[in-house]
Every structure is written in structure tokens, then in C-alpha cells.
């Protein structure tokens, strides 16, 4: 189910600052402590004018409606169409139909996913996989976390082998263990030439951002395996008040 389709600036990750059309899907099996997805109560919103933040609500959102919305929101500076969430791969069959049409129209496609469904992933021009840490959850069983992490790596490897421009992102909190992120960097380097985006959590409530010292230490630790394929990004769109 689609929450909204709109045009904005990519606020995080490897392609921060680029113009995107975002197709945001509702729902995610995970419940990360920093996520506000469930607080959004709207569905089927489509931005009226690119970047305006003004929406209309459609009665339905079929494949044709999605394509029409994307075509209407296309701007000369558009970089790609992002399928985001929530977890978009919950709707992988519908998304695949949309992606095939978009490719025929010359659009570049982008996936933002938590990577928990390697069996559902398929080729996108670009993909960002959000690797989770244990502290991202109020509680998670050890075997469940290990399964999730294994699937995240499987998803990254599958996309890499499909020649997608895939990169990983990990949200860093004050309590994050540097060694945990270092292990992720090593595992990514074993797959191939993968960029890792280190992202300090956006503070809210009891969630606190990591210190500058911790961020530098984590980047240096990751650099032992990834060299200069590690970068820090923030949620720029939130600082700018954008969607």
C-alpha cells in the first residue's frame, strides 16, 4: 500500500543532494526505535506540484496511477525514482511491474530497503540497504538478529551480482559498539566494492546522537577494510524541513 508519491531531495546516503521522486510504501515487519513510519496515518497521497508539499488524495492507486503520478512529477533535474518505505519489498510484485514500465520510459530506479527479503529483491539501478544493529530494537532475540543480518548481506550480495549500484547504510547511536560496525565493514569488503554510509541517528525523545569522537572512530575502524569507501551522511532533508 502506498502512502505517498512526491518530489524532493535525497537527504541521506551515497546520493545525498540529488533530486528524486519518492514512492513511499506503508508497513514494515521491523520496529526500529528511531523510526516514525507508523505515525503516518495517510495513504494514496500524490504531490500536486513537484517540491510544493501540497498533496491530493487519490481514491485508488493502481499501476497506471503510479506511473501517471511519476510522469507528472518529473523535473529536468530528476536523478532517479526511489521506492522506499516502510519496507517496499513487501510489495515486490507490484513494484516490479512499475520498474519495468519506468525502465522502458528511461527512468533510473532506486531501492531503499532493510534487506530482510533477499528472495524478493531484483535488479534496480541503485540500491541502499539499511543494515540494522541490535540497539535499533527495544528487544530482539539473538537468533532473530543473526537471521536478519544474514539476510541483509544476502540481499546486498544478490544486488551486487546483478550489477546494481548497491551500497549499505548503518544508523549509529551513542551506545553503538565500534566493533559491531567494523564487522559489517569486513563482511561488506568480502562481497566486493561496497560503500558504507555511516549515519548518526536523528535525535528525538530518549534517542541521542553519537559524539563526533565516536563517529570518527567508527569511520576509521571501517576504513581498515573499506579504505575510502566509507562516508558519513546526515538526514539533510530533516534539517532543511523537506519531505
Task: Give the structure's gist in a few sentences.
This protein is 32% helix and 23% strand. The protein is built from 6 helices and 10 strands.
Q: What would your notes on this structure say?
A:
By secondary structure, this protein is α/β, with parallel strands linked by helices. The protein has a single domain (2-239), classed as Alpha-Beta Barrel (TIM Barrel). Helices cover 32% and strands 23% of the residues. It has a ten-stranded mixed beta sheet, covered by helices on one side. Helix 5 links the parallel strand 9 (196-200) and strand 10. Helix 4 (178-191) packs parallel to helix 5 (212-226). It is globular. The mean pLDDT is 95.
Number of helices: 6
Structural class: alpha/beta
Q: Give the name of the CATH architecture.
A: Alpha-Beta Barrel
The description of the largest β-sheet is: 10 strands, mixed
Shape: globular
Rg over CA atoms, rounded to whole Å, is 18 Å
Number of strands: 10
Q: How is the CATH topology named?
A: TIM Barrel
**Share of β-strand residues:** 15-25%
Separation of the first and last Cα atoms? 19 Å
Binding site for S-adenosyl-L-methionine: 34-36, 86
Catalytic activity: 6-carboxy-5,6,7,8-tetrahydropterin + H(+) = 7-carboxy-7-carbaguanine + NH4(+)
Binding site for substrate: 9-11, 24, 84
Domain Radical SAM core: 15-243
